[in-house]
Amino acid sequence: MSETVSSAPQLTVMTVNIHKGFTSFNRKFILPELRDAVRKVGADVVFLQEVLGTHDDHGKKIEDWPDAPHYEFLADSIWPQFAYGRNMVYPKGHHGNAVMSKFPIVGHQNHDVSIAGPEKRGLLHCVVRVPGHTQDVHVICVHLGLAENHRQQQLDLLCKITHSEMPPEAPLIVAGDFNDWRKRAHDILWREAGLREIFVTAYGESAKTFPAIFPVLSLDRIYVRNCSVHLPVVLPRRPWAHLSDHAPLAAEIHL
């Protein structure tokens, strides 16, 4: 068994909610520092939530505000492939989810899963072509709502996408900010979509990620289907507690 795992193609992934490039309560713009920290992780595929596409006012007031959309600024020369799913649009700009990849993204689709009300949420589905692997890898970047009844409906939509948009045998990685502080998603995603949460599988419980300075809630998750996981980790409090109110997760996925 160990021989099979070691010879299988590997993919390092990470997920983080970047809070639009600002520290908690929008005190300070830290996107350049955030880019350095994400680079040091060296992940092949990065799942980002709360990524700004544009914001006219911030661009005029903040000295080191990038000219490019934030997902392009973060991807830079490290991740030549990226996809963005715009979820929240307002008069000055928009934000949403993004996926950055070192390997080709051969297709992507953003699903608006907003339920009635001001909260706008999305599921960004990307198809990644990994060298040495015969099947494309499907990845879904998730940011679910704050209200439980909204999350229930959004999880139902997520399960439907896992059946309708990919072959049943394809490797699938679903990661992001689930806002699921009651941990209801585990059973639903296993029962309806065959998805296993990687920290539950490895350690018996999902990782505590929020607030990053002293995590008590398990809001951020990585679920997989048709692949295995080696050494999932919560990234260190330094520097991440300063860069996001969510602690990032990373793992090595064996396809």
TrEMBL record:
* A single GO molecular function term of this UniProt record: endonuclease activity
What superkingdom does the record give?
Bacteria
Please give the GO cellular component terms listed in this UniProt entry: membrane
Every copy of the Endonuclease/exonuclease/phosphatase domain together lies at 14-246
Would you indicate the residue range of the signal peptide? none
Q: Does the keyword Iron-sulfur belong to this entry?
A: no
Q: Which controlled-vocabulary keywords does the entry list?
A: Endonuclease, Exonuclease, Hydrolase, Nuclease
Protein name according to UniProt: Endonuclease/exonuclease/phosphatase family protein
